[in-house]
């Protein structure tokens, strides 16, 4: 590799890192703003976690949505310049932003060990940046299409779609409200395909701007349609996850699963680690494990989200009530018998004097 080419790749990686950091700041803030909007909407109508869409009328949720879009655009541009192995793990910085803002805005207390978790995320991200591969940019969408249609990646894509359908159609209606892995799993699996398609579209746009028009290739539009479909699915289930579970749980688990699957998908499709030394690959893996450790520590030291009033006072079914009748006998009444003559009699004042 020539010196000029190496310098150009380094500059591209640097641009990707800076954009990824800006993206993390916006996305981390959007988690908190959207959570506030979801809480407001849930207080006046059906929650998103149970299929409600009242949050679409909540201005605060839309502010969070715009913030996330800005962050995702920055992330989108970052993928034009740097490999997914470098850009995706830097999403850990959004967890730090989310944790700090949740501490002050959502009153989800950040413990001292949580600060250690934040530091581990920063250290791990630094290690990844220092040992990131320098990726050669494809020269056309046709070249990207060849990478996407290789047998190994087709097998991964088919497996991802199959797992997502099982989670959506079978697991979500049954376990979505009680198992965080269902909603987050859908977001993560679909998210890995989102990144691959977004990176393809981003490279096509970059090449077009440089004067090599890619709009005439049907593959460009296929990648675009896949990206839009995946993004819509991700947002839908991410809203459900945020509305149902604590932000402190959703953020680190989503990051860990999404990043792992994205790195795997990128390694299969773009062969990011091809040509790297064993020591560089080992350093990247160690950096990623450090980041995962940080997210785990951060998650484990956060206070659980208190149950809503409706959850605290929801009685068991069937509803059975005990009372002592006038003759001293104990009887049992079901809910539909509450207004019976005998039951009303027991709450009359003369039975308590």
TrEMBL record:
Keywords: Cell membrane, Endosome, Ion transport, Magnesium, Membrane, Transmembrane, Transmembrane helix, Transport. The keyword tRNA-binding does not apply. GO terms for cellular component: early endosome; plasma membrane. Its main location: membrane. The chain crosses the membrane at residues 16-33, 60-81, 87-106, 113-132, 152-169, 181-205, 217-238, 250-270. It is a multi-pass membrane protein. InterPro entries: EmrE-like (IPR037185), Mg_trans_NIPA (IPR008521). It is found in: Cell membrane; Early endosome; Membrane. It comes from the Eukaryota. One of its GO terms (molecular function) is magnesium ion transmembrane transporter activity. It holds the Pfam family Mg_trans_NIPA. The keyword Transport applies. Acts as a Mg(2+) transporter. Can also transport other divalent cations such as Fe(2+), Sr(2+), Ba(2+), Mn(2+) and Co(2+) but to a much less extent than Mg(2+). Belongs to the NIPA (TC 2.A.7) family. Homodimer. This is Probable magnesium transporter. It comes from Rhynchospora tenuis.
């Amino acid at each position: 590799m020539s010196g000029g080419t190496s310098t150009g790749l380094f500059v591209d990686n640097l641009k990707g890192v800076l954009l990824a950091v800006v993206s993390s700041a916006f996305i981390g803030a959007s988690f908190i703003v959207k959570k506030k909007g979801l809480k407001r909407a849930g207080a006046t109508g059906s929650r998103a976690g149970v299929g409600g869409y009242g949050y679409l009328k909540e201005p605060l949720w839309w502010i969070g949505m715009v913030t996330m879009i800005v962050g995702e655009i920055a992330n989108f541009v970052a993928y034009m310049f740097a490999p997914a192995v470098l850009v995706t793990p830097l999403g850990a910085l959004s967890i730090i932003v989310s944790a700090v803002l949740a501490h002050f805005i959502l009153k989800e207390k950040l413990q001292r060990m949580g600060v250690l978790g934040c530091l581990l995320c920063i250290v791990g991200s630094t290690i990844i940046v220092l040992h990131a591969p320098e990726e050669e940019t494809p020269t056309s969408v046709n070249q990207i299409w060849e990478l996407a249609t290789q047998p190994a990646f087709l097998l991964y894509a088919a497996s991802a779609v199959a797992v997502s359908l099982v989670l959506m159609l079978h697991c979500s209606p049954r376990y979505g409200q009680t198992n965080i892995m269902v909603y987050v799993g859908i977001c993560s699996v679909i998210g890995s395909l989102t990144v691959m398609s977004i990176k393809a579209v981003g490279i096509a746009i970059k090449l077009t701007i440089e004067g090599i028009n890619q709009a005439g290739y049907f593959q460009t539009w296929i990648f675009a349609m896949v990206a839009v479909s995946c993004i819509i699915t991700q947002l839908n289930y991410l809203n459900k996850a945020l509305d149902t579970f604590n932000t402190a749980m959703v953020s680190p688990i989503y990051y860990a699963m999404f990043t792992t699957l994205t790195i795997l998908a990128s390694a299969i499709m773009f062969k990011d680690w091809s040509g790297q030394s064993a020591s560089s690959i080992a350093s990247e893996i160690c950096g990623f494990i450090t980041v995962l450790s940080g997210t785990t520590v951060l998650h484990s030291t956060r206070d659980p989200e208190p149950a809503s009033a409706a959850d605290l006072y929801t009685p068991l079914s069937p509803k059975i009530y005990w009372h002592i009748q006038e003759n001293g006998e104990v009887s049992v009444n079901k809910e539909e018998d509450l207004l019976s003559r005998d039951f009303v009699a027991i709450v009359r004042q003369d039975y308590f004097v």
